[in-house]
């Protein structure tokens, strides 16, 4: 194995997947418009979040868009990932 | 393929890996003590964070431990993941 490729842990690989997924949907502009966010959630997070109504998408988008520029940048996106992962953690690990 | 196993996307699988890694190091107490955090970072994030001195670990732990209970709960841990993933994103995607 060439030593130019460091061994990446599963956790590091997961962090890279989050970055890759964001850029797959944001394209070169590096921001998600509302339609990009909807497509990303419906294609990549549909076991964890269901968006059935536009009202739900509008509310989520407004909550995430902290600086109000009508686009979701990477920091705003990672806040969504943190929120959904925390919710999953609470589902999978019931409080004692 | 049995229809009881839904197809999980790479992004969803990444979120599950974050949860699994946390619990691997927290054990049943579901909180990371300082030594657990050090071990997790050194074993699972060492391509992304290097902690060489105890001072650095102390400062990071204090920054993450928002409620000051001397333990890192899952929400405090996911804030670390968000911070490090955002930093990686900026390294890999230079601003134009």
TrEMBL record, chains A, B:
Source organism: Oreochromis niloticus
Protein name: EF-hand domain-containing protein
Domain of life (superkingdom): Eukaryota
Any one biological process term the GO annotation gives: positive regulation of canonical NF-kappaB signal transduction
SUPFAM superfamilies membership: EF-hand
The EF-hand domain, residue ranges: 52-87
PANTHER family named among the record's database cross-references: PROTEIN S100-B, S100 CALCIUM-BINDING PROTEIN
A Pfam short name: S_100
GO cellular component, one term: extracellular space
Gene Ontology molecular-function annotations: calcium ion binding; calcium-dependent protein binding; RAGE receptor binding; S100 protein binding
